Amino acid sequence: MSPVRRRDLVVLALGLTAAAWLLVRSWYGSLPALDWWLPTPLAVLAAAEAWGARTLRARLAAERAARAGRAPRSGEAAVRRVEPLLVARLAVLAQASAYVGAVFLGVWAGVLLHVAPAVDRLQAARGDTVTAVVGVLGAAALVAAALWLESVCRIPPEGEKPSEGVSA
Asked: Fewest CB atoms within 10 A around its CB: which of 61, 83, 100, 104?
């Protein structure tokens, strides 16, 4: 499995920004109001993936330390083995989430590009701008968390080689 190419995410986000801007520009008057909570699932997913990346990183570090023969510190629980299939599934989740985040980043950025300049002219644009900003921030957080989770799933981490007799 190859890592997500950042260039692909940027191209996807920029292309969808242009497409969303054109569509919103054409049909903004007939769109329903955009509520501020619409993009919040992106932020929730970003928080869950960041938490998962942090937890997985700690578990992998503890497992590597146990393999190297270092005893756990006093008060620490025994090292729970990290299942390789779990890491593979999390890597796939991270890659999918990175692409989903890039898609929504482009869509919300396209909406923001249309409604932000119209804040003074249109009453509805004020609330839609808040929604678009929340959407852009949530989608960017999802992309960042997904890329972090993907980097944590690389075994062994860059610059560190497995000890003899241990397969990665």
From this structure: 83
